[in-house]
Amino acid sequence: MIQKFSRATKSASLRLLTLKLGQSGSFALPLLVAALLCLSYGSGFAADTNALAKLQNVHRIVFLGDSITYAGGYVADVEAYYVTRFPKRHFEFINVGLSSETVSGLSEASEKNPRPDLHERLGRVLEKTKPDLVFICYGMNDGIYSPPDEARLKAFADGMKSVHEQIAAAGVKNIIHITPPVFDPVGAKARLSTNDSYGFSHPYEGYNKTLDQFSDWLVAQRKVGWQVADLHSGMSRWLGEQRQHNPNFNYTKDGVHPDGAGHWAMAKQVLLYLGANDVEKDPSPASMVAGNPHGEEILKLVREQEELLRDAWLNFCGFKRPGVKAGLPVPDAEAKSAELDKQIRELAVSAKN
Question: With a threshold of 0.85, does the pTM exceed it?
Answer without folding.
Answer: yes
